[in-house]
## 1
Amino acid sequence: MASDTKAAAVRLRGVTKIYDTGVAALGPLDLDVISGEFVSLLGPSGCGKSTALRLIAGLSAPSAGTVELAHRGALRPGSHRIGFVFQEPTLMPWATVRDNVRLPFRLAHAPAADADVRIDQALDQVGLAEFADAYPRELSGGMKMRVSLARALVTDPDILLMDEPFAALDEITRFRLNNDLLTLWRSLHKTVIFVTHSVFESVYLSQRVIVMTARPGRIGAEFRITSPEPRGEAFRTSAEYAAFCREVSSALAPSYAGQPGA
Amino acid sequence: MTSPRDIIRFLLPVVVLAAGLLLWEAIVRAYDIQPYVLPSPLLVLQTLVGDWDVLSQSLGVTLLTTLEGFVAAAVGGIALALLFNQSKWLEYSLFPYAVVLQVTPVIAIAPLLLIYLQQQTAVIVCAWIVAFFPVLSNTTLGLNSVDRNLSGLFQLYGASRLQTLLFLKLPGALPYILGGLRIAGGLSLIGAVVAEIAAGSAGAGSGLAFRIAESGYRLNIPRMFAALLLLSLAGIVIYGLLALVSHLLLRRWHESALGKES
């Protein structure tokens, strides 16, 4: 099921996750993400959206249901189907920026001959070319996140999974990273699944926003953000943007009902 | 970057030392105390220079024992921790005995070891017994303190057990291992001294601790003090060297080795 542009890159069918403690975290969840699409999973903390991402990444196994990833045929050496960006930068503090980005190649079974070129390219894409030899502690929070993004991109993945990557950053930095991410997405044609608890971030970035219910997480509502690309600061202040945000917010409200302090 | 505060911090202990020595010297002279009761600091220094041939030879013996015990403790402690990390069953089976070995006073074990082992071996084993536990427990702690997200990342990129150990767990545990080694350095000196004293009373040996015991029998108190001074200096140098190694290895990335200004 390969070449069609409308082909699903990720397909979840009846996926549930029940932890050993008996807590039902997720599902049942059905989800199709089309190749090249930018989808946000939006929901309150603990609704299982991060769990969904870890299931797609294969970092944990579903209790029931199936997770399918589309095949793109053989991968070139050093490539990887999935890039994952965690909530924290998750860098190795003992390694330089370059060595952190090199990690996927060091762990790969087939060595990539052009590793150095690709590392430089990835660092360039996130605007960190000059900081290749710095250590993580010498970087700001936003720059660390960029390193993390470069490491995810360096293997040229089809699918980029992002787990609230910018949640801990200040607003200005977050806006800049949002814009840079959109630019990268437009030029690299990746499928992006972006987990966030920010209505504004999800509407700004996505083609489709999926609102999840409180635990166990299910799909509560779905919105197509039809605003044209490229989006920029003008979109952030437009009436259209505000309208989408209002709509999504009201769909999200029931998920917070019954939560203390909500 | 030496502030007046740093200078004072360095000067104060020196002033205290000088004042203490002066007072000691003054009391010995004022009350005309005999050297076999309490030698003056000056006499201790003279003995140190005068008996340098004997004392330096003994210092060499003790330092060699300490070094051998330390290396055995470092290798043994780290190797055991790695084994425990790979196999929980092994850890459950053996860890309690490591604790037993640690909490049993080494001075009580030393005479037994001297019966069953050659003296030279027994002394090294003593140094090892005292020093290996901090290395073992610190390394274990370090190997278990790996960042969960980084672990997930290694899993995502299909890292083998060996790769995870070499590229993730060991570098992550390095600050803990170095902390353990710093304690082990001082402890292996203690172990060596304890064994020497136990062996010395059995009538053999030529390390510094043996010199102290021997000088005690002969009421050569100034030499006792001189040997004690050397032991003390050896301990300080060992600690200083290990602290330096630790600083050099960690200074680029670990919090413990960073200056206050960053």
## 2
Amino acid sequence: MNISIPHSFLKEFLQTEATPQKIAECLSLCGPSVEALEKTKADYIYHLEVTTNRVDMMSVLGIAREAAASLPQFGLKATLKNDLYKPTRTLPVGQPFPLKLTVDSKLCPRFTAVVIGNVTIKPSPPSIRDYLEKSGIRSLNNVVDISNYLMRAYGQPVHTFDLDKITAKMVLRLSRKGETITTLDEKTFTLPGGDIVIEDGSHKLIDLCGIMGGASSAVDENTKNVLLFVQTYSASHIRRTSMLLGQRSEAAQIFEKQPDPELVMPVILKGIKLFKQLTGGEQASQIIDLYPAPAKPKIVNVPLQLIRDRLGVDIAASTVDKILESLGFINGRVPSWRRHDINIPEDIVEEVARIYGYHRLPSQLMTSAIPTNYPSTNFYLEAQIKHWLVGFGLTEIYTNSLVSQNFPGQLKIKNALSEDWQYLRRSLIPSHTQEFPAFEMANTYHPRPGQLPEERFQLLISGFKDFAKLKGIVDALFAKLHLPVTAALTPTTAVIDLEPVIKQAKIYPAYRPVSAFAPVIEDLTFTLPAQTYVGPVLEAIKASHRLIASVKLTKTWRQNFTFTITYQSLVKSLSAQKVAPVRKKIVSTLKTKVRGTLVGHLD
Amino acid sequence: MQLLNLKNQALALIDQAGSPEELKQLQIDLLGRKSELNQTLKTLAKLPPEEKINLGRQVNETKNAIESALNERRQQLGGRTDQWLDVTAPGKQPPLGHLHPISQAIEEIQRLFEHLGFTRVRYPEVDWDWYVFEALNMPADHPARDEWETIFIDAPKHPKLGQMVLTTHTSNGQVREMERVKTPPIRMLNIGKCYRRQQDPTHTVMFHQFEGLVIDKGISIPHLKGTLDYFGREFFGPKIKSRIRPFHFQFTEPSFEVDFTCTACSGRGCRFCKSGWVEVGGAGMVHPNVLKAGKIDPRVFSGFAFGWGVERVLRLKPGLNIDDIRMLYSSQPEFLNQF
């Protein structure tokens, strides 16, 4: 949530000589983050980010309280003033309330209302207009401005009705599915059902509670009698309706975060005062206050040692007490406006730590034992494979796991951001549309009933126009891994399941002694029948005798294939004569296996 | 003895050879059919077996030594040919491959956290709501979930673990790691792909996060600060400092936003950072409820956690200046070939 507050408005609640720059810095370090400090003609505006747990800071009073707590830690004097929580007068008694009320207190934990008679609608005084406009709220007329002023100053949303447009009674209840309401901004909603609404004696819905008032009962330039209305609502109901209708008004965003019911009465009293000042209107009824279950004070105690342990400093008990008091915590009692945010000792630790200042805490590395319980994933080999492939001249790419094509057996996205990202891919191949040799390591996703999908970690090599080059890369990779090739090859792609490969790969192969005897190396050329697979031929030559250390295909010309054969023994030196029988064996093997014939003659 | 003399003479001759032609002749004289070495070889057959093996080995060693000396000298002479050599002409490059900058960053992050004893892990990218939200102290419909822009999978709910979602953060690894290790100490580094419904120059629907989780007895805010300072120094540069500011996450208490000194202006304040600091991501002390969800006793153990975008820290690498991270996932050679 974001809130903008002019410096002049803040000073209504904060007594300090600190500059806006200093206040912004202290707030950012200890409390809400000041995203920007904007300079205007004669003022500054703080643009603040308020976290969702601190609905009490969606107000000038709340920010002033933070500033009053933080500034003294920087050696700057600051005190909170005009704290609405400090009661200023007793409840005035008035005429009976004119409407019959039926309120479900589960939906509306605290319901207050009062009639203000004889208002005069006119523009607000310049100071109020200036505060509102610099806070990013348009000034309309004095009645609307009072609502907005109360919300911005204290963080309590307020509604005003034209009393004379309401018939006889108010029933606060849940809506039925399909009921309609037209709100102040002239939008008509068909309600999902289960929304908090108010119906009057004419069976019309006059309020979509906590989100926006109804148009039919709105204050206009002829309004004479106003119903001032200050409530808290069931947060989950407000949130649900607001989300379902897409109506994220500031009131809704506050109500869904459980603002303080103890704030309701001070705000309505302040409202009565403002009505008198700005509209000339007088309180014309008793104040209705339906609050059957006031929250009991909440106590959260924290051992001093826990604070010291977490902060890593021996902070004095008196410092802790002072910090907590400045935030409204008295003897472990949580202030009403922090009721939902503070639950456990760690929450108090945070309060002390941030106001004391995170920047004052030491910085040190752990000195405790290093864990040695490793998972089996071999991230090093993954990285090594990437580096080998890069070394072979390939470029690594990352493509999106979310795809547009619907192939059978793919997981579907329920709320896709775009048509391009509707499915979780089960193959990497369609994602590789690039025209250069590339590779990618990524998961593919394979649904399993009742379980999470299998995430198969795969390597795709793609972008080759020459199959032999692609295969060469795959062969080279598996040679480095000391494994037989296990890749799914197509003419342009190779897919490798990495998990088994990485599990079986050998970083250190079994060492074979290097022969002290010189090898005999010679070329033999064979004529092979058309469409003979040469892979098995190479294997057959290699397998034909144990003295054959290696076989390479070095030249092909039409149906002639030249193999370079290395003969080597670990125990003796070889000569051309000594390998003659081996040579004969090769010739006979190829003759029987593939009907290959030697080019030339053997001695 | 005879062979040793032969070898020494041969090596001297090779060393004195002044041209490739001379070397060619030497090769014939020293190793050819009529060479002394070859003659020695022929006498082998008449020797008794024991001597045969011995002499055979010596002959072979001599031969190898001469061959390698010939090769070496040949290479030395290569530069002294009469032909004109243009050393300014471009060389013949092997094809240049390119490691993706995300992989580069991940390797660096892994390496520098391993120095601190962190264990890298990987957890599911498609996970149950329980691990992504609920176990992290975010019950269903909690307003805090709004921040995540979650992508849901069209699949039946798990009776206990809830909906199937694409992980919006690597924090799903927190409780999974507690379940794997069972008893602290834990120093986890979880790096993985995450997904959110966002796409603009600084966000991509698929992105990467790295998550640190440390749990042990007596882990405090200063330990987090020390780890952050270490990361800033190692990853961004020796003058880079970190700072933490208050924030709110459901799964940490206290929670922080983490800033590092702006690398563009070294903290002086510039157009990019305004304040001299750049926000990198979130961190905090692990919430007791999260420890409980991982069956770890919060009265005995405490911890800290942080989780940031790999793209985010990559963008802040000094001098890299990636202004649109969507480029990372575009497969454009003009972009990738620069790495």
## 3
Amino acid sequence: MRHPATISELTRRIGLNPDSLGEHALNAAIDGRMRVLGVFDEAAYAIRLSADANELQSLINDIVVSETWFYRGADFFETVIPFVRQLALARQVTPVRILSAACGTGEEPYSIAIALERAGVPSHSYRIDAVDLSTRNIDIARLGKYGDFSFRQTDQELRSSFFRPTGGGLWEIQPGIRGAVNFRVGNLMDPFFLGEELPYDLICCRNVFIYFTPSARKVALQNLSRLLALDGLLGLGHAESSELAEPNWKRFGPEGACLFQHVSALMAGATTPLVVAGRTPRRAAPVQIEETLPESAASESVVESRKHAIRSSGQHRRPLLVMRSGPESHRADGTDCWNTIGVRGDHSCRELAKYDHCHNCHVFSAAGRRFLDNISPPGYLAEWTERLAEPIPEAGRDLENVLIFRMRDEWLALPVACVAEVTLPRPFHRVPHRGGLLDGIINIRGELHLLVRVDELVGLTPPGEEIPMTRKSRLLVAGTPNNLWAFVVNEVDRVRRFPATELLPVPTTVARSTGRFSRGVLVGDGRMTGLLDEVKLFDALRARLT
Amino acid sequence: MLALTFQIGPNRLALGVREIKEVVPRVNLKPAPFGPSWLAGVFVYRGQVVPVVDLHKLIAVGNCPDFLSSRIILVPLPGDPRERLIGLLAGQVADIRELPSMGNGSSGNSDSSRPDLGPVIVDAEGIMHLAVLDRVIPAAYRQQLSALCHSTDS
């Protein structure tokens, strides 16, 4: 493998098993991103990746392939659709919750929505959430336009009834179907993956585990079992069903459907999985539990009530990470509001004007508190024990953040701790009869600062010469908190994190001018950057100007 | 001062974030043989052995709840020249808030032989202690912890 640090970072963050994609594809994607950024050093790129969520997302988008089509796996649909239909009939009020985990470009969730529509299941009786790691995939899915390749197992009739041709050989999905799926970005490696969601009755995660390392599969499976309702169905890919330990999981439907149900769902009362006719509840609830149900739950369907009862009676196998503490749950006091009237819903909540986002709202944080007051799910402690025991890669230590900028033709850097602001150049007040390092006085956010010539101080500009101004010129405000200076630089690049070990001594050839104020030299991004010694620099300014 | 708030039994505490290295979830702790009752055990953190103090047992207020909100606060062992880490297991480790700074509270009875939760402030919810590490973990306790810290790079 050519990019060991980057690949191990990817494995850590998204559980990627590098062998599943092949060395060539992975290297090509990483090379591509490094070219885009102009980074030539793999170690530097790996550090960037670990610190920069946007870059991680960009790389993920280039790596994650969506190789799927509509109605993939006929057996799956033939089993799943009657299951959902019958559940919807039995429920009446509460929608059947469906999750397409790793939905790719959306073919799978849309197929489920189309199939349910064709089976006559009313759209208000189910809810489909679809999650993918790649923002690019999610964008394509939301757009809902597909090429011929996505229809390789779809007949013409179905395509023409649910899609309309648009330009470029693409077919656009019917708006009604598109509206039935809620797409969002998520990472199955996140221990709180969809942590705020209620349990799902059907979770599809087909042909995803093949890309994961064994330990990543465990994490993903933990997340999915946490999110799966007590008697919910889990759909996997053909190659992946061996992940489920036989004593705990039972096949549901034909082997080709690759659907599984947790055995505790069977032990909890039902003798056969789902033998439902019409509106019969799926299994009889023990009477004594039924009687203890509070008013709020009694109004719900029997199936739902029974779930509550099992949860509250403590025989529930599923970890309690779901934000619901008991039967008097979200519908009673409205704690699920972020999904209905908040940012995940229709934005009709009046509090949004005050809080901007549900994350800032006390209702949401209270729900978060309740969520944290649940007992840790099984395997949680063990997983963290393992995770924390791993050493941090050497490159991740002793990082220093510096702001990189250009003065004349030289790239320089200052520790971000001493930079107060980067802003656009603006008019300033020239001080009469003062030349040299002092240009004038400048007003920044109502405070007056001295505008000085750092370029001249470090010897990049001969005395008396102006610093050239272009569209890239910026004004830097830096110094100590009670003694800030403003100065013009020709360009500001970015903040870079680098390990202390990467700082090289100043070569004697450079020592001519800026060397006096240098702490060292950073090599990277195809150039040499002089790290200025902020103490010496600001001391010198003070000595010359005050 | 930005401070992490947490609870030990009924007691609410705050600890300045600058004193904290990291907050981690609870982990499986290996019991230390013949260790004191307030020692929850040790675990491996990034290659070093870190002893964890169960703050509930330390001040004898029952057991730390096994909730997700109970976490381990990693801090340097007070007074240790090598700043080796110890863990503090506490409940309701879930919030960070701005508190009035209270200067250096380590003066006074820092040589006390018994753990002490530190000076108090009063807020809307009642009394809150501003924890001072070397008062929470007095010298005698620190010695026992020091013996348990092992790090590969020292």
## 4
Amino acid sequence: MEAGKLIKPPVEVRYAQELEALRAVDDGIRPENWKMSPKAVRTFILGSREAIEYNGRSYQIQKKYFGNDALVERCIITLAGNRGLMLVGEPGTAKTMLSELLSAAVSGVSTNTIQGTAGTTEDMIKYSWNYALLLAKGPVREALVPAPLYIGMEKGVITRFEEITRTPAEIQDSLISVLSDKVLNVPELEEDGFLFARPGFNVIGTANTRDKGVNEMSSALKRRFNFETVMPVREAALEKQIIQNEVNALAKEAHIQMQADEDVAEILASTYHELREGISSYGHRIDKPTAVMSTAEAVSVYYQTMITGYYYGNGSISVDALVQNLVGAVSKENKEDLEKVKAYFNTVIRDKSSKEGGVWKQYYEAKKWLK
Amino acid sequence: METVLRSEEMVEITFLPIRHHSPACAWHVKQVIEEQRPDLLLMEGPCNANGLIPVMTDEETKAPFAVYYSYRDRLGHISEEKGHYRCYYPFLDYSPELAALREGRRLGIETAFIDLPYAEILAATGQGRGLLQDVEKPNYNDDYLLSRNRYLQQLCEKAGLRSFDEFWEKYFEIRGIRESSETWFSHLSAYCELARKDTPQEVLKAEGCLEREAFMAARILERARGLAGKAAEAETAGSGGRIVVVTGGFHTAGLKSLVSGEQKSDPRKNRIGEENQEVYIMPYSMEAADALNGYASGMPCPGFYQKIWEGLGSGTFPYHETVLDMLVATGKAVRRKSELLSTYDEICALQMADGLAALRGKPEPGAYELRDAVLSAFIKGECNLATDRPLRILKEQMTGRQMGKLGRDAAVPPIIRDFELQCKRLGLKSRSALESEVTLSLFAVEKHRCTSMFLQRMLFLQTGFARRVKGPNLQQKKDHNLIREIWKYKWNTQVSAALIDVSVYGGTVEEAAVSMTKQRLGQEMDAGTGAMLLTQVFEMGLDVQMEPVYQRVHELLLQEADFYSLTKALQYFLDMQRLQGLYRTYLQLDELTVMCCQKLITCLPSMTRIRDEDSEKCMNACKLLYQITGHEYRSLQEAFFEALAAMGQDTELHPGLDGCIHGILYGSGRETAEDVAGACRSYLTGTHDQLLKTARFFRGLFYTARDLVFIGSQFTEMLDHFLGSVEGPEFMELLPELRMAFGYFTPGEIDRIAAMAARLHGKTGEELQRAKEVLPGWYAYGKELDAYVMAKWKD
């Protein structure tokens, strides 16, 4: 796979060189079948202060996951143990990204994934059959089409289960005995039908706790996982940093020659931060919108604004477009949210525009688009 | 660990830097003393506590305990406010100072505290800094000086650690117990010196560090000279003796340069006498010692580190074992709360703790890995208030439950002696840890009233000794009809601790209650709250030395602009006046009551356009004023009626209030029933909106003059007319208001009104209640007939 020709290359492709360098210099103890030691996994995700010298090049490992470092460490240790890892939390808190980073670092592959939906069936998790072969040769291994869980067990790699709570509870439960016994029985294959998991196999699930229409997990399944609750970023400064980093990365992938503007990122970060927390930096109480005000949403609002500016606006970012995109992002669930954002502009942003001036003033003037 | 050899005195002085509360530090201090066997042990701590050392090291005294210092600034040495000051110096088993003191006793080494006396430290400290910080429980420890600097922030960032405490645990505790004492102290010295370099000189001065260090250095040199003199007498020239100095790491560098003569400083002369200073030792609890409970310095999780300290004696490294113990204990406690948790969860948690320790480069898991392990393996589902019970249980376990105990020789502060004396006099069990109950005939037996006063004072001082189960409650204006009080009381060490805690306020329970009241009243509050505090004074029977208290309440009343708060205050004053004979407590409330009434009367004319929800309170105020200006305070009557007249001038007067005022005027004979009826008619015959306000008007009217209804029949007729002229949905809206209006009548009166209403329609009351059922068929027929007649009529 070549990174340049994909909209979003998988983690192991995007960071292929970094991973290679880390593996090469890794002198820690590796759990069996892991591509690198837990310490190196930590370095890959949380970055390193000193550059790594490998093959005549020096690699500065960037921090890829912002937020709680201790949480990342717990995740790594969980994966080395006997239980699955379940990342829960509000939408847009980078659960999926963290699970991709973890599996790319641990197993070298982040694409062994079950994408959970309301229509997910057991076939999509375990295995199904190639019916032409099945008719021709009968139930033999050749005719079996392995699904991600099967592949994970067979190869000793991590299986990712995205949005596990979107799948019906009875389908989720097909994981229970596999996770505890580490064996999958394919009765059709008779005595060859036992697939024993190889070391290195584990499951990372991600689950949403806030969305409508999620299914509760059974307690039997819960017992087989260690849970990590991923919280939204609590500092506006860090959020600004994340927005800038992510937008620049997206722009680079789309070959847009623009850089994220620091002031605009700050505006967006503080807007999202304040609306989510319900209190402004000046101490105003704000009505919280019901729509999800995640950092990921802020990134996409900024990125859209950037694209608009790139193609229609001579390469400059317009605050008007920013507010227009913001409207689109918040008025998803109900109309009241827009009213709340309007109220926010009329109190907080008004005060900020008179105190800070500059971009904040433009931002306040752009409130005409809030309708 | 650094040794300075003073050539003059030929005394070897070894400085041991410490962090207060650290098992590893206590362990190493013990090792060094054991090894060096010095002739003298000097310790950081106010020197006026020196007399307590025998009690602190007594075998019967069990940690945690705290040394309590208090100072009454009667002469204004600290500030013009002449306040009461106090601070605590808590000791746990693993406090290095306590370890040193105990070791000193064991080996027969003389020990002494060398810091400035408490009051002098206060005088040397800048306002709002160090021990003069505005916190609930000031603490003598100044370890925060080690953790509040930029150097440390960068250090933590580089090491990937969350806080100073985690940094400390990793490098100085878990690794520290694997190091020799020499290495350990040299590491700590290095850290402390860097931390000190990062602290500006002005901060050192403001925190009082410089003066304290100068004093301590002078003390050390003085003792060194003394020791050298002794050695010379004994003619053992060449070895002048050894001194070990144990002080907070932050001060060691400063002390060393002073003692070795690199720096010079004039020690502070004692200016403040001993007379207003007190120092006691009091039992303490782990909970109070936990940094997480708002205790600013010292290590968090005392329960956890206590276990580590106990484990250190066994010769092995105790962290892994302690983490396992805590996991199992937490698991057990979680299961007891009927939450599902298996042994396998505990196994996974231990694996997690060990794994994290390895990943983070710690030889054994510590408190942070323990917490992470519980968070990861014990909490099922999203971590929130509903699911985080295991974490809360773990926190309790890590805090610990131990309570301290004092040896028999501990000095008893006068307030505790007074407490015991009072208990004896009143026949209460002062040393029983079992809860006892006592029933007091408050108004009949004088001794019972005295007992009640005493218990009320103990309650007010928040000693946790007694609680009132039943009895008249003046604060909440409840149960005024009761004549007995039932109290439950029980003694425990915390009662003593709490009494010592308030001993700065006075030598007896009564004196402490009086000063505490004065202090409490000094805070910002509204007049209503001030008056409520006065009811507590009333219940406590504190009727002497109360002049400043009245003045303060007077001030509060003067400042008060809120009508309702004033009403609340007035209500309290009246209640107390009414009950003072029964309670046999006579407060001088007359002046306050008059003052309060005057203010209320002045405010009244502006209270016309009030919100509906405030109308009840406002009506109540009017009625109250009417009642008292009619009896005791007739001089205010004229002003009151003038205010009412002024209110009547406002065309947008709240209808309820309007009714209320008319009722009062009627009651005082200033209006006739006819005048009131006229006012009522003006509502009834006005616009439709005006008509709807009649319900509120009636409510106000009946609140103050419900007898009007029974004079003649005109009010019943008006009511009838009113009810006849509102439509269905509107009636439903008005119904709550009407219910309130008729709520002021007794059931008998309601019957009478019903009978009058029935008579208006030519029936008797009973007939009304026994109306015949109209069958649906008949009703439909009647309606049809009506329609037919109407149609014909039009034709």
